[in-house]
Design brief:
The chain has 5 helices and no strands. By secondary structure, it is an all-alpha fold. It has one domain: 434 Repressor (Amino-terminal Domain) (Orthogonal Bundle), CATH 1.10.260. Helices cover about 65% and strands about 0% of the residues. Helix 1 runs antiparallel to helix 2. The relative contact order is 0.16.
Length: about 100
């Protein structure tokens, strides 16, 4: 996914992330993890890259690159920080049914 920096909204990011979750359900845990992590990486790149994400999460760029390139087994807390930085929350706050 090559797009201009800051070109997708948090709502679009959530939509892309949900699609990756749907796709991931068709695979084993290892492949599902790869699909979800790649989706987060693509969203991060579309929203300004690792430097921007580093500022939003407080995680170093090195740590983010390692997490996204499977050089480390990322902790759940790391992924949650990334998800909230990219999407604001995982729920569309305007949804009537929530």
């Amino acid at each position: 996914m090559k797009t201009k920096k800051h070109s997708i909204s948090q709502e679009t990011a959530r939509s892309l992330f949900y699609k990756s979750l749907e796709e991931a359900c068709n695979y084993n845990a290892e492949k599902a993890t790869q699909i979800i992590v790649k989706s987060l990486k693509d969203i991060a790149l579309a929203q300004g890259g690792m430097a921007s994400l580093s500022c939003k999460t407080g995680l170093s760029r090195t740590s983010l690159y390692k997490t996204f390139n499977n050089k480390t087994d990322g902790r759940l807390g790391t992924y949650i920080k990334i998800m909230f930085a990219l999407m604001g929350s995982l729920v569309n706050k305007k949804a009537d049914h929530l």
